[in-house]
Amino acid sequence: MSERVASPHLEPLDLERVGALDRLVHEPARLTILTALSACRRADFMYLLRITGLSRGNLSTHLTKLEDGGLVRVDKRFVDRRPNTSVALTTAGRDALERHWRQLDELRRVAREAGGLELAPEGGER
Predict the structure, then answer these.
(1) Which end of the chain is more exposed for a tag (fewer CB within 10 A), N or C?
(2) Domains of the chain, earliest start first
(3) pLDDT in tens, 35-59
(4) Which neighbouring-strand residues pair with 86?
């Protein structure tokens, strides 16, 4: 198994950028939800449940956090006498997601330029 080797060329200031990531967006389940919503106008709760693999309670909790943060809009209504929850990405949500991907791309670029993404051979030092 290869292990990552710290690069002496990666400045602590560069790594501080990781701390600047928006935790509301960066959390894996919420990032999945936001990314899925960025590919469509809106999605219903059942679709998000299937693609995230979350439980109903966990999905509901994450959606509430995203809604409280202004990143998604949740609409609840009845369709053929059945409850239907629809979720859409807000403009602020789309902007936050785009900013997040740009930050990750920048972190990857900085790490590559510093040689920090090199892998050491199995059982060996670099």
Answers:
(1) N
(2) 3-115 (1.10.10.10)
(3) 999 999 999 999 999 999 999 999 9
(4) 44, 75
